[in-house]
Amino acid sequence: MWSPQIINSFKWNMDGSFLGKPGPSGIGGVLQNHHGHLLGIFSLPVGILDSNIAKLRVVVKAIELSASNYLLHHKHITIESDSTNVISWMHNPHNRPWMHWELFSTVQRLTRFFGSITFAHVYRESNNMADCMAKQGVRRSNVFIA
To answer: pTM score, two decimals?
Structure first.
């Protein structure tokens, strides 16, 4: 169930989808404002990845897109994912897989654009639209951002 956000804040719901472990993967995200209005979506293929890395890549992509949009600078951003592993990695840097340090470094570098950033776990049922975008990403040959 959608819950209202802090005034002038933004929320990304995101997901990764994959065929096999590892297998062809796609990611997708949905950006909403504090009223729940849809502001943006994305869907793209990310190659042959396992589920955890696909779900980490979608967090990085959402933060990159947010950092590239001046209107989101100095605002509160919430990142919601149904991946307990990825959310745990964001909260506990000591538990992060070292082989993906460059992705975590990108997140750290880009968080300076925001007033604050929160990483939260949501159940799969709360992520339907992001799940659809991620599944489309598996089948895409190019990037879709709107």
So the answer is: 0.90
Q: For residue 93, what are the domain limits?
A: 9-145
Q: What gap in Å lies between CA 19 and CA 51, rounded to an integer?
A: 9
Give the integer Cα–Cα distance in Å for 114 and 63: 10
In a domain, 4, yes or no: no
> What's phi and psi for 117, nearest 5 deg?
-140, 135
pLDDT, one tens digit per residue, over 3-54 is: 656 788 999 999 999 888 788 999 999 999 989 899 999 999 999 988 889 9
Angstrom distance (rounded) from CA 51 to CA 70? 31
Total domains in the chain come to 1
Alpha-carbon span 13 to 84, nearest angstrom: 14
